[in-house]
Amino acid sequence: MSSDRQCWLRPLVALACVLGLYVVAALAQTNVANSSASLAGKTLMTAEGAWTVTGLWAFSRSTSPPFSVNAGAAMVTNLDADKLHGQTDAYYRNASNLNAGVLSGVYGGTGISGVPSNGQLLIGSGTGYTLSSITAGTGISVTTAPGGITINNTSIGQVQLLKANSGTDTAAVATNVDTIAISGLTAKDQLYITFSCFTATQATGQVQLYTATDAIVLASLTAGAALVANTGTIGSVIAMTDQSAVTQIDNLVSALGSPGQGALNQVNATAVTTAWTGAWTLALRHNGVTAGGTFRYRWAVYKIVGQ
Can you tell me the distance from the alpha carbon of 145 to that of 117, in angstroms, rounded to the nearest whole number? Predict the structure, then answer.
């Protein structure tokens, strides 16, 4: 009986071995199909639960995404992407790589695209910024250059303050107590000088307007040879070049003095070496302070622009 069993069992074992080898060979050649066309109408297996993958998974899907994630999925902890669109994080932290879009003023930008022309400025519009240029009004000129704007007053009769100063002096000899460099005058420009002088305790020699360049007195500012002790004078001078020659300076002095000093109204025409239109130095000068005295002064020089 045992020999009979062996006779019919042996073919079955052989068949099982053949079938086992076939199954192993078939599994070795199995491909995972994941396209809609490949899976349509098929019985699918869903892999769920936690898996630990220790081997390398390679995705070869040409330009298609290697996998997808449901909307709203949480961030994956410890997932470190080396590159985004082929660039490392250093590329995206370099502002020079920004080449599209406009950053609005709300977020610290300008909201402006394009390059401004010479002299254009960012001007608030109420809703953002706009590029605009300074508009010249009456008597004003605006000149623009790369990175610069120059604004000039072109009005006829424009008054410019050239100098304003005050101080004291006790020198016993003739002294220029203050000076101003004059240059760039035209034949039609004028100078307007205001002054106030006082001598304390002791007398001070005659106060003058003086061209230090040519060492010539242009006008006396006191009604006498000196300021009497404890007196002063206040007034103004209008100076201009003579119509016939720029080497002659005409001026009108009008001054009032303290009691005992007197008033002064005088017209002077003075020939000079350096032309009115050249470079020269105007000075406020006295002819010496008596020992123990102090000379006090205040003056201002204005330029009145001609045509």
Answer: 9
Give bridge partners of residue 176 from the DSSP assignment: 285
Question: Which of helix, strand or coil describes residue 21?
Answer: helix
Q: How far apart are CA 222 and CA 77, in angstroms?
A: 94
Sign of CA dihedral 74, 79, 85, 87: positive
Distance CA 49, CA 3 (A): 51
CA distance 63 to 167: 86
Strand, coil or helix: what is 14?
Answer: helix
Global confidence as pTM: 0.55
At 281 the three-state DSSP class reads: strand
Structure tokens at 222: 């006191």
Higher per-residue confidence, 71 vs 191: 191
- Please give the single-letter amino acid code of residue 206: Q
Identity of the amino acid at 294: T
**What secondary structure letter does DSSP report for 138?**
T
State both tokens at 301.
């020089």
Give the up-direction half-sphere exposure of residue 28: CA atoms within 13 A in the CB hemisphere.
6
How many Å apart are CA 130 and CA 124, to the nearest integer?
6
Q: Where are the domains of the chain?
A: 86-154, 159-304
Q: Angle 273-182-280 (CA atoms, 0-180°, nearest 5)?
A: 25
Give the pLDDT confidence of 217-233 residue by residue, as tens digits. 999 999 888 999 999 99
Q: Which of 114, 98, 155 is nearest to 307 (CA)?
A: 155
- Residue range 159-304 in CATH 3.40.50: no
